[in-house]
Amino acid sequence: MKKLIFPIILLLFLGGCGSKAQPSVLRVALPWSDMVQDPDSNYYINWLEERTGLELQITLIRQSRSEEYLDALLSSGADVDVVMFGGDFTISREALEPYIASGQIWSENGVSSYDNYGSSVRGGAGQILWINHEWLEALGLPIPSTTEEFKEVLKAFASNDLNGNGLADEIPLLGCCDNYAEDPAEFLLNAYVNNDSFHSRFDPADGSSLTAGTSAWRKGVSYCRSLCEEGLFDERSFSVNEEQFCELVNSPLPLVGAFTTASISDVIYPVNPEVMARYMHVAPLKGEDGAAYALYAEDAPAVGAVILGRSTRKEEAKKLLSLMLTEEASLIARYGEEGVDWEFSDGRDVSIYGDASTIVTRSYIRNSPQNKHLNGIGPMNVPERYLRGVTWNGLNSDAEYIDGRAQMSYSKYLPEHIEFHEYDPELSAYTDEWLKAFLKGEKDIRSDEEWEEYLNGLSRWQ
Amino acid sequence: MGRIPKRAFALAVSAILCLGCGKTEDSLPAAADASVYESPEELYDKALSEDVLIVYTVSTRAVDAKDSFEKAYPGLTVEIRDLRSPNLIDAVEEDHEKGLANCDVVICNDNSGDFKSRLVDTGIVLPYMPQDIGAHMKEGMAGEMITFLSEAELLLYNSARYDSCPIDNIWALTEQKYRGTIYMPNPLRSFSTYAFCGACMQHAEELAAAYEKYCGSPLEIPEGMNAAEVFWSRASENIVFTNSSDEVVEALGSGAADFGIGVSSKLRLKDLGYDMEAVYRLEPFCGCRTSVAVMLAADSPNVNSARLFVRWLLGEADGKGEGYKPFCTAGTWSAREDVADGNPVPLSEIDLIEPDQEKLISDREHMEAFWSGILRQNNQEK
Predict the structure, then answer these.
(1) Residue in B86, B188, B272 nearest the CB of A137
(2) For residues B105 and B309, what is the distance between their CA atoms, to the nearest angstrom?
(3) Which domains are seen in chain A, by residue range?
(4) How many CB atoms lie within 10 A of CB A207?
(5) Which of A203, B83, B310, B377 has its CA 20 to 30 A from that of A229?
(6) Considering CB atoms only, which of B82, B186, B242 is closest to A273?
(7) How many helices (DSSP H) and strands (DSSP E) are in chain A?
């Protein structure tokens, strides 16, 4: 007993006269998301604090221009250790380079950022055509399977007052030029030739044949131009930005007949299940010569977080970000609280992608207002077996389930052997610019002279 | 008071008292009292002071009913939550347990016995059958549950690949040549598929006899199994399990499947160009009859809107209302005597079996164990 008395007295003394040890504070800049209710009481944030013993002081980033934000942050005296990325606030590796080179962003042994690899399955169709099946049903038309049928459907969309408002305001086909996935021309060209815009239009089958100069590509562009000429491919597609494009698709009054995107959730707001229910995927269309390809995309991991070079708490920052990359943390970051929002599959369920089931979602909270995780913001590394093994939560408007079914339908149109050509920004800019000019009628795709002019410019890369 | 919750009881009683008409049929809960007449105009008037009507449904066709309802009754708003049957039942039950009045009307497949045992028998949902519509319902459609549509879990075949159904006996589905080309929803997640699989257990002797016709010799049934279990054990080696009937028809449409087993109402997708046909004649049967129920949530805070919507779904007094039309499509059979079936072939000319719901409920544990084994095996082989 005597042996115990001294330590007890010592503990009492220490506990009584010293202040309770405070956890180290780490200041984290986190992009604001309307899908994350309150970071301070967020389940994942609290879990990270408990596991690391750190107190995370969150500063919300309320803008989407990441470089502007970094410039302002670095020129100010703001006390921030870690900047996270995700949602509308993203940054490319190239854009990070100058900050790393100047030491403003910490780098050690070649590591300068913590990746986010968990938003979607790795590899699959990067562009899906979605069509308003309510309009098809109203017209008694089948889902188009060829470019010819598609044109007839678009004509019917244009010439009937399908939203019943007495105005000819239906938009048969809409897109935007902010990214390839949302540009329907890219999709339609795949009915003629393997038009891999993600790799500067080199054929992914061999990685060396430039398809953008072939007669089949020209035929495809000509088809797209005919849709523009007839007002079926809406001219706003060349001027609206992604936000305006999404607004039109999400209109409570149905306006848009067809559009393309990588994931339905990129365009249709998650709070809009009734709009989601309007659209169904269409398998790749066959062109005049029977070709039909799907655009393959393999998402590179996004930048999830960086540590500022001036941070005096780099070890703490590394501890936090390394933890976020573990499987345990990543599953929370992706699916929420284990046992409440999801559980490991007991093997009786069927995965969305037809693979072995691994995760059963009880409450699918991604892309909906919640306070369990950061809705995809920050670093994570969700193993592929979980991403592909997730099961359906039974909600018909679940975007991942809708995407999964589309992916299964597109899988047989993907290239069997892939040899990607490196993306060439200069070449892509050249073909993109000409394609747009052909579609808008600024250049005449049917004119051999103008086609030759285009080919002459293209010869630099052939 | 029995199993009916206080709030539901109070709601039903107050409805009767307010209308000054207390006569109730002995066999029905008060909310289903067909003698209590409230005209659509009266309901609409009262509904205008209520909140947004929330409908939990297993059918996307409810969205069409919502659209026409909102047009017919300006000022009323309907929110549709489209869920798979097991998830819908979980959600309604959970709402009720937590005292959350999140739901007003429930449209659910009532085939596996879960709907009856968990929501109907517990009084979490209540029937509502106005007398002017009840008079037109087919026998057995309006009781403790309101069945407003008959469907079937049915064998479908790929009509792009086959001019006519290439098989005439269900045991042909166990042939190796169909490996990986038969698509069927997970019976532990799809109530109508569960009902069919469960009904097969109840008709095991017919399956044994069909085997003998098919192979010319009696089926060897291992001890502890029945013919239905032998059939499903063998057929499951060929089956690709899916999450829903939508995936089944998509597989038929894309050419991945030779056969599908799915809910018959998906036959309406033929209009969208899906290449599939129903199998109506098969030895010993090609599917089982299923049905869709519409009920009031006992906790509904918007009871007048809910009743008005149920009337709408049921096609109003004359059966010509817009709300019933979206459901009267290929692969469905009307619950009303005065409304024609959506399907060209009547139920009486289809080799369907009828699941015994009480037996499905009592067999639940055995069925779960049997199908869990099959599904786990299937999962491991991926």
Answers:
(1) B272
(2) 8
(3) 24-119+302-391 (3.40.190.10), 124-297+402-461 (3.40.190.10)
(4) 15
(5) A203
(6) B82
(7) 17, 14
Q: Angle A323-A43-A89 (CA atoms, 0-180°, nearest 5)?
A: 70
Chain A positions in Cβ-Cβ contact with residue B371 (cut-off 8 Å)? 348
Count how many Cα atoms sit within 13 Å of the Cα of residue B144 in the half-sphere of its side chain: 13
Cα gap A185→A190, rounded to integer Å: 9
Pairing assessment for the beta strands A114-117 and A54-61 based on DSSP bridges: unpaired
State the Cα–Cα distance between residues A57 and A137, nearest whole angstrom. 53
Report CB contact under 8 Å: B243, A352: yes
Tokens coding B31? 């909310």
d(CA B145, CA B140): 9
Contact B63 A142 (CB under 8 A): no
Measured between alpha carbons, how far is A267 from A260 in angstroms, rounded to an integer? 9
CB distance B309 to B55 below 8 Å:
yes
| A347 lies within 8 A of chain B by CB | yes
Give the helix/strand (H/E) hosting A242: helix A242-249
CA–centroid distance for B53 within its chain: 22
Interface mutation vs chain B, best among A350, A407, A410, A414, most B CBs within 10 Å? A350
pLDDT tens digits for range A226-267? 999 999 999 999 999 999 999 999 999 999 999 999 999 889
Contacts B93 to A, Cβ<8 Å: none
Q: CB B263: neighbour CB atoms within 10 A?
A: 31
Domains and CATH numbers, chain B: 6-150+290-334 (3.40.190.10), 152-289+347-380 (3.40.190.10)
Q: Which amino acid is at A342?
A: W
B53 to chain A, closest Cα gap in Å:
15
A vs B, Cβ pairs < 8 A, gives 87
Encode B12-50: b = buried (16+ Cβ within 10 Å), e = exposed.
beebbeeeeeeebeeebbbbbbbebebebeebbebbeeb
Residues 6 or more apart whose CB falls under 8 angstroms from that of A282 comprise A129, A130, A131, A143, A144, A258
Mean pLDDT by runs of 10 across the 382 residues of chain B is: 37 37 40 66 96 93 92 95 87 92 90 89 93 93 92 97 97 97 94 94 97 97 96 96 94 94 95 95 97 93 94 95 94 96 96 92 93 91 77
> What is the C-alpha separation between B192 and B106, in angstroms, rounded?
17
